[in-house]
Amino acid sequence: MTDIVTSVPVPSNKVNPDVVVDVGVLEKSLRRPRTAFNYLMSFLTTSLTILALVPLFSVVLMLVVRGGQRLSLSMFTELPPVAFEHGGGFGNAIVGTLVMVGIAALISVPFGILSAIYLAEIAPQAKLSDVVRMCAKVLTGFPSILAGVFAYGAVVLVTGGFSAVAGGIALSILMLPTVMLTAEEAIHMVPSKIREAALGMGATQTQTVWMVLLPTAFPGILTGIMLAIARAAGETAPLLFTALFSNYWIVSGGRLDLMQPTSSLAVLIYNFSAMPFQNQIELAWAAALVLALLVLTVNLIGQSLSRR
User: Fold this and answer.
1) Across residues 62-67, what is the average pLDDT?
2) Residue 278: CB partners within 8 Å, gap ≥ 6?
3) Measured between alpha carbons, how far is 174 from 144 in angstroms, rounded to an integer?
4) Are 129 and 118 a contacting pair, CB within 8 Å?
């Protein structure tokens, strides 16, 4: 009978004598020019980054210190005070901001997503698509005050007065390119295998877009929407030409009146910061803190959605 002997290879810890390792080359020494240059550039980059963040942190610190002193529950429930009046709040400005941003979202989100579907799926190589993309990229850097002037001529002069609708339309012009370009990029990131599988199972192009592509790209699309909302909420110039300002609630007689001058946080800060009354200046700091927290929250939600 023959014994079967199995041999298991044992890894050897011996160093291959043919391989020569120069340990001195691997050491990080400041006497080596490349290592010294690396440390120098790292130090400069870190220093410049901290220097660039100093203005941001100084503004945030001033908002927390000066705005936090007046922050209370009454700020969210009371109306702005008139001259020489103490107390008051900016509840109507918060409601007005949310209403106008909501109107802008209702206009820009459907148009932005439909445009993105056309650019990404219907005619990605068409000349019209190239023109639309170029216009959208130009609009991302479009001065916000020009959007306000356009809405003033197209809505305020036609309807005969400043209103929340005019403010929402002006903000939608600023939101539209961000929503459209982000949605197009999100649709492009959907793996082509998913698209081909849906078409291979007999789905039409419309069914593939609405039932496969859009649900898959939804987190990316929602990220673009949140970033556009964050930008629109902090805009001041377009609202000066369209919604103007009001010291009263947008709801009158239990009915939401969208065709009257409407207050917003950004315009309230602009108006109150120039007044010679200490009460209004303190309210402007508190409103600035609330607006910064609102924009920061929306941005954080958008960033968290983009990581999924």
Assistant:
1) 92
2) none
3) 7
4) yes
Quick check: helix, strand or coil at residue 259?
coil
- Return d(Cα 112, Cα 303) in angstroms, integer: 20
Any residues with CB less than 8 A from the CB of 26 and at least 6 apart, and which?
none
Distance CA(26)–CA(40), nearest Å, equals 19
Question: In this predicted model, which residue has the larger pLDDT, 62 or 26?
Answer: 62
- Name the E strands within the chain: 251-252, 255-256
Report the distance separating Cα 190 and Cα 27, nearest Å: 45
Contacts made by residues 286-290, CB under 8 angstroms, sequence distance 24+: 286/67, 286/68, 286/69, 286/70, 286/71, 286/75, 286/90, 287/67, 287/75, 287/90, 287/93, 288/63, 288/67, 289/63, 289/64, 289/67, 289/68, 289/71, 290/67, 290/71, 290/75, 290/90, 290/94, 290/265
- Is 244:261 a contact under the CB 8 Å cutoff? yes
pLDDT digits (tens, 9 = 90+) for 138-179: 988 889 999 999 999 999 999 999 999 999 999 999 999 999
Question: Between the CA of residue 156 and those of 53, 161, 170, what are the distances in Å?
Answer: 40, 5, 11
Question: What is the per-residue pLDDT across 74-115, written as a single tens digit (0 to 9) for each?
Answer: 889 999 998 888 888 999 999 999 999 999 999 999 999 999
- Give pLDDT tens digits for 107-136: 999 999 999 999 999 999 899 999 999 999
Residue 144: C-alpha distances to residues 2, 18, 73, 231, 236 (Å):
91, 69, 32, 10, 8
User: Would you give the end-to-end CA distance of the chain in angstroms?
Assistant: 64
The secondary element (H helix, E strand) that includes residue 269 is helix 265-272
pLDDT tens by residue, 10-34? 455 555 656 565 655 556 666 778 8
Supply the pLDDT for residue 1.
42
